[in-house]
UniProtKB/TrEMBL annotation, chains A, B:
One Pfam short name: tRNA_anti-codon
Organism: Hominimerdicola aceti
Function: Catalyzes the attachment of L-aspartate to tRNA(Asp) in a two-step reaction: L-aspartate is first activated by ATP to form Asp-AMP and then transferred to the acceptor end of tRNA(Asp).
Aminoacyl-transfer RNA synthetases class-II family profile domain: residues covered: 128-426
Protein name: Aspartate--tRNA ligase
Amino acid sequence: MLADAKANMGKEVEFSGCVHRIKNMGSIAFIVVRTSRDVIQTVYSADNCKDSIEGLREGFFVNVKGIVKENPKDFNGLEIELDSIKLISTNAAELPLKISQGRLNCTIEVNLDNRAASLRNPYERAIFKLQEGLVQGMHKFMQANNFTEIHSPKIVAQGAEGGANIFRLDYFGKSAFLNQSPQFYKQMAVAFFDRVYEIAPVYRAEKHATSRHINEYIGLDFEMGYIDSMYDVMKMEIAMLKSIFEYIKENYQNELKILEADVPEIKEVPSIKFADAIELLRGGEGSGKKFDLDPEDEVNLGKYAKEKYDSDFIFVTHFPSSKPPFYAMNSREDPREAYKFDLLFRGLEITSGGQRIHDYNEQVEKMKAQGLDPDDFKNYLEAHKYGLPPHGGLGIGLERLLMKLLNKNNIRETSLFPRDINRLLP
Amino acid sequence: MLADAKANMGKEVEFSGCVHRIKNMGSIAFIVVRTSRDVIQTVYSADNCKDSIEGLREGFFVNVKGIVKENPKDFNGLEIELDSIKLISTNAAELPLKISQGRLNCTIEVNLDNRAASLRNPYERAIFKLQEGLVQGMHKFMQANNFTEIHSPKIVAQGAEGGANIFRLDYFGKSAFLNQSPQFYKQMAVAFFDRVYEIAPVYRAEKHATSRHINEYIGLDFEMGYIDSMYDVMKMEIAMLKSIFEYIKENYQNELKILEADVPEIKEVPSIKFADAIELLRGGEGSGKKFDLDPEDEVNLGKYAKEKYDSDFIFVTHFPSSKPPFYAMNSREDPREAYKFDLLFRGLEITSGGQRIHDYNEQVEKMKAQGLDPDDFKNYLEAHKYGLPPHGGLGIGLERLLMKLLNKNNIRETSLFPRDINRLLP
């Protein structure tokens, strides 16, 4: 709507929206109207406007007509001088939160408990408009790079990651699960689409309530065939993130401004081997014993990347091969390491990826080496049995990416209706 | 890849793919290579190619280089004269299905049991490439019409449609469900984004194995505020379908050709009231008693639309208001009817939609009239309580839309990895 108003300076425009704020000055009143992406100031005076505003309240929905006037003091640089204002819809109660003055002034719990109200705050909704931008930017990049979008089932007979962090459901008397990632299906699809991606919910039954975990999140997944090494996947990820950031800077300027977002310039992204990272973080101590990074390690690696390379991102590569996932290809140089990588963004893991095993026998052997029974993976292994090209891929957590982009401390702030161990509503 | 070859007639190209078919003629061999969207004929002769093809088998993955030559008899009008062919990856077993000669020659059960193999058939995979086209076409239209894409949770405390057709899961000791539609969240979001859409899985625990039901499908949902009537929603749907069909005709020509798809020209879409439809289908008998269309009714209405209006689509409107959904607004002219519509495509319901109740008290009253307790919908009703603009929306089943577009008899054919009462694998 704002673009429309800007293009019609001095002319009449008509639009509908929600009465966001009313400042009644007696003879005139300022009525701020909220439309899908903007809040626009309108000016009412009984002389100019043929309708009365008696009884009009914040939260009501209206249709307005008026002349666009310049106003350099306004956020948008303009205001609408009202000719008419018609009531469309009322409310039954006032909002339990003050949504019209900048940021919400409440705890995250109150915000989330009152989502039908809190998301009417322009700052809060801008978070999710920007979330859309990240997703649309990914579609754009993937489509331009010949990836095919797929839709794999979330109800599965078996989770892709195994372990206890999985939701179980009753499927017509059979036991089924909510998938932990589209991994198996992405790999199967590489055999016929070469490159695939999926943007869909992913489920992890994490029993810990941390600021970086939610139990249902949107996975940005891709998988690509005919790679030479995992570095092809890493290069594709960086190209994608650059492209997405360009896309939001071009199309979501208003939201970036409202959110005071700090979109990083991506230059060269440094890369460190897992063993070297552990050595760097702990010296001799603990190296060789550790199999994963903990949150503190991630924060410290983030600082290291920023200080040494002026980079908001850092790859950690070559995780121990004894550790899941079982589908990670072991290094040809040192089989104790796998071609697996994480990408950290401002000290938080936002991606796991790597080169996968494409050879049937190699995959069967690695399953056995990790104490898994290949017979339990019969359907998955058919892809390998009938042949797969060398391939790799990754998954990005959408909410984590957005969380770090906005320098938020809690992932719940970047999920529209978050789910955690204590939250199933709204 | 094919476009690249066409643009390089007479020149050398390089690409990787799967050996789809080999016809060995002694001194020369025709090696058909499958790439992400095409199958391309290459010609091997020992004189021109520096590599041997001894031991090369169908299903292996190769990198090829060669000169593009015209060949009017070929499906693509060209072939590649090989300079080199390098083996990238092998297989451990031959495919259990013959995938390289046109359509699969097996039952749907065999097809689905062997998905890792059957989707390598160019006809089968073209179905899902086209599915992508429908989804991308929707994104394009929605974005151009100021709809915001949202991601609502699928794990919920309460299903949007109620009833017994719902999957239950254990959520950390609490009872939770898989959502039957994003309805509640879409409506909440209209208050702050005006227009929203979501493309995401939807769950229905249908206990019947029919050719038109699967238990997990992709819902194409949108909801729009500031409407005057449900006809605004119907108009938007038709504009969207037209735009999607244009999009696939422009960008998925190859797949439409492989699939022999019959994409309808959408002109005026006829509309019939539910009561009139029942009268038309059954005369006096049963009218007034029936509350929904059955599959046979839908088929007959499809025939009627085709014969009388030469239309592949027909709207059925004004369903009885006593029937779910409880959020459908009752007609102002006759409260026994609701502003609810279905859209039939070639005799199958692909959409339910309508104008929703936006007034809090009206919604509470309708819940009571349908025997529901408003206290069970406290979170949902907060959206109404704090105010909503007049709004409406709809949901389209992606697999049904594709099924009818391809004139398929079974919805399982248009789901990548379908889920039904008997199928949880692969």
